[in-house]
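Dig into what follows:
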Amino acid sequence: MPRIPIINIQLVHIQGPLKGRIQDFSQFPIYIGRHSSCQVRFDKDLTTISRRHARIERQGNRFRIIDVSTNGTYVNGKRIADVYLRDGDVITFAENGPKASFLTKTDSEQVFPPPPQPAFPSGAASAPPQQVPDRSPVPPPAAPSAPGQHPPIPEPGLTTGPDQEIPVVSTSAPLVIQFGPTLRSYKLLPVTIGTDPDCEFVIADHALAARHVQLFFNDDSYYAKDLTGSGLVCINGRPIGDHAVLAQGAELSLSDRGPKFRFLGGGRLAEIQDAAPEPLEETDTAPGFQDADSGTPIAKKKDKKATSLLKNFFS
């Protein structure tokens, strides 16, 4: 009879305040941090651990850990942002922080009985199987390829399939994002954009998800990763699937209603605006200017230094 395994996971704590404990989980996602709602909860005085530090999700028979912390999550000594776990991986919560070993186990098996067989009268010979004619439609023969003709090559930079999966790892690479009057620069990728205050770049827009899109760097290329699971993120008007390359000049749209950005190359991402804003007087303050971390309004004079910074960004 066919058997389908039910896979659960174990976290074996090998360093820190939970050392020696073994936790079993069968419900996902699993939240890790100091908050009282976390399934793996550390003491509130352990301030190197964020209130919501990381979470583990199940995708089919694979398990993925996602870092949402300030001080980072490490797998086998390497800082990560989003990675699939394997048996025996060692997870460290914050540098030199608590450690746990990740294990999977088969808890039980679900058994499916075979289909019932037709019964025959006692002493009667088994009825021979009847031949059922195959009435399925016959597909038309494929047209032969012309000599020298090759199948079309997908347009690069727009979609990636499972065989082209690019891992998201913590990487030192420059990134500058301009959105309205806000200009933020980063030296460590990935950078997550969304409405959640834990995101590195927060946009208060009801059209966006809490964690909407992730920008990361791998093998000399910048990538955009759709975190919505709904195909909202597009490049040049086409959904990117899971992730896609950001080529120079590409238009990155976060939803069908925006916001939209132009990737200028060199790690520069600039908002595409429908209409240019009215110029500000030299003594005026820029309305709506916010600190990207706290969202607190900040009065900012338009001086020559700010003008020069924006000029250098677009040059």
User: Anything to note?
Assistant: The mean pLDDT is 78.
